[in-house]
Structures are given as structure tokens and as C-alpha cells.
């Protein structure tokens, strides 16, 4: 009899242990997937900041317009943050995060698309301003023309001749891509942290949050490294003979391969979205037995 009772207790204990193991594995898988999304999130932010000067030169747009493009990320974030925070907890949170990462990746790829539609970059040959250790700051052509024509024309006419007009309206794709990146990034933090708070053991959620923030720092490291590497590559690398290019990365007319930054970050975001679509809505949480 004692042996039969022992076998019965062992059989009852095994299902509960299996449930607990599945619960722990489900949460760990979610943490691993969320870590990838955090890296993709910070990588995209750094890529945008490091490529902003090349975008300004490539599209020949003003600094104020570049700032507007950079701010489109916050615009996209504000458009959906309220709806995601309110309805997200009632829906399948892992899949929503996966959809957000996928949209974030599409935004990165969309940002790089204008490079393939605009044709080759043609730098100005009139002004040749190279920066070196022995060079001194030179006046821009616009400022020199202002000085020479100050006595011959009114200030309004001189000012109009120095306005910088947009060279291409393809920057709209960059604006839309950055906005999509802001929309896609919205569900990652609020839904990810709420998922951890709901299913992590008591007192462990703060530990998991610290680990996620530490892992997220990998994104800026990769972003600055890629930004430095691609900025030294000519924008039309692979399309033109580099031996015919007469400017160097130290030249003010140089435009680096900014589009490669967004392609890499966009593809990484799409890859990071895949695991979320295979995760359950809730881990297999162990149910507490009611005491009789």
C-alpha cells in the first residue's frame, strides 16, 4: 500500500512540474525575443542620428527640414501610443510586439529606398572645400557673393540668392520611413514590461528590466560602429568607379553610404520580429490548487 501511495504522489507531482517548466521556458523565450527587439530599437535610433548629415547633403535640404524629418519618429509614436497602451493588454501582446518590430523594419527599408530611385550623386565642382589639419576656415561662396555685391544690390536680393532650396522631394520617403519606425517601436516597451510584470516571479521583474536595459546598450555600440564604417564608403559604392571620385571623406561635399545603415537596421528589426509570432499569449502558468 505504501508503494502504491508513493507512485500516486509521484504521478501527481509530474504534471505540475511539467507545467512549471513550460511556464519558465515560455517566459525565458519571451525575454530572449524582447532582448533582440530592444537591440533593434536602440540600433535604429543611433543609425538615424549618425546618418542625418549625409541625408541633408544627399537630398540637398535645409537643416530645419532635416530636423522635421528626424522628429517624424516622435510623430508616429504619438499617433498610436494611447491606443497601444489601452488595447494592447487585452490582445495578444507577443504578436503585437512582433508586428511592431516588423513595421519598424519596413520603416528602415523604406528610408533606404530613395537611394535606388534617385540616380547617382553629383557633387558640386565649383566649391572645393577640404578639411585638413593645416586648413583654415574658409568663407562659403554664398557669403563671398554677399560681401562682393553688398554695395550693388539690396539686402533682400542678396539674401534670396543664398536660399538653399530642396534638391529632391525623395526625402518624403525618409520622413515616412522614420514615422513608420516610430509607430512600430511603440508597443515594444509598454507591452513588453507589462508582460514581464504579469508573469515573472515576485521581485524578479526589476532584475529582468535591468538585464533588458543592459542588453539594449549593444544597439548603440553596433550603430556607432556601422555609422562610422559606412560613412567612409562613398554613397554610390558598387555603382560607380571609385577611382573617378575626386573627393574624400574629409571633404564637405562627401556623402557616405547612409542607405546601408537603414538596410541593416531594417532587416535586423524584421528578423527580431519572427520569434514573437511563435510565443503564446500567456505562459503556461501553474494554477494554484484550492484548499478544501
From TrEMBL:
It holds the Pfam family OATP. SUPFAM superfamilies: MFS general substrate transporter. GO terms for cellular component: plasma membrane. Residues 30-292 form the Major facilitator superfamily (MFS) profile domain. GO terms for biological process: monoatomic ion transport. One of its GO terms (molecular function) is transmembrane transporter activity. The chain crosses the membrane at residues 29-48, 68-89, 96-117, 170-195, 207-230, 258-279. It is found in: Cell membrane; Membrane. Keywords: Disulfide bond, Ion transport, Membrane, Transmembrane, Transmembrane helix, Transport. NCBIfam families: oat. This is Solute carrier organic anion transporter family member.
Amino acid at each position: 500500500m505504501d508503494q502504491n501511495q508513493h507512485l500516486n504522489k509521484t504521478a501527481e507531482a509530474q504534471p505540475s512540474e511539467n507545467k512549471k517548466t513550460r511556464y519558465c521556458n515560455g517566459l525565458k523565450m519571451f525575454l530572449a525575443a524582447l532582448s533582440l527587439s530592444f537591440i533593434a530599437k536602440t540600433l535604429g535610433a543611433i543609425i538615424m542620428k549618425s546618418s542625418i548629415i549625409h541625408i541633408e547633403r544627399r537630398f540637398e535640404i535645409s537643416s530645419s527640414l532635416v530636423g522635421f524629418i528626424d522628429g517624424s519618429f516622435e510623430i508616429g509614436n504619438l499617433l498610436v501610443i494611447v491606443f497601444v497602451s489601452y488595447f494592447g493588454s487585452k490582445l495578444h501582446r507577443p504578436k503585437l510586439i512582433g508586428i511592431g518590430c516588423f513595421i519598424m523594419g519596413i520603416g528602415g527599408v523604406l528610408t533606404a529606398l530613395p537611394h535606388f530611385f534617385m540616380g547617382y550623386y553629383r557633387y558640386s565642382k565649383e566649391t572645393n572645400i577640404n578639411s585638413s589639419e593645416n586648413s583654415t576656415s574658409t568663407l562659403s561662396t554664398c557669403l563671398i557673393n554677399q560681401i562682393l555685391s553688398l554695395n550693388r544690390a539690396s539686402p533682400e536680393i542678396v539674401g534670396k540668392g543664398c536660399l538653399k532650396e530642396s534638391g529632391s522631394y525623395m526625402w518624403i520617403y525618409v520622413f515616412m520611413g522614420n514615422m513608420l519606425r516610430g509607430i512600430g517601436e511603440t508597443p515594444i516597451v509598454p507591452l513588453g514590461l507589462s508582460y514581464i510584470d504579469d508573469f515573472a516571479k515576485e521581485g524578479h521583474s526589476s532584475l529582468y528590466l535591468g538585464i533588458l536595459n543592459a542588453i539594449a546598450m549593444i544597439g548603440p555600440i553596433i550603430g556607432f560602429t556601422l555609422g562610422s564604417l559606412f560613412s567612409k564608403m562613398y554613397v554610390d559604392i558598387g555603382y560607380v568607379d571609385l577611382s573617378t571620385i575626386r573627393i574624400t571623406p574629409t571633404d564637405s561635399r562627401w556623402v557616405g553610404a547612409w542607405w546601408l545603415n537603414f538596410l541593416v537596421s531594417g532587416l535586423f528589426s524584421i528578423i527580431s520580429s519572427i520569434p514573437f509570432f511563435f510565443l503564446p499569449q500567456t505562459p503556461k502558468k501553474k494554477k494554484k490548487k484550492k484548499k478544501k
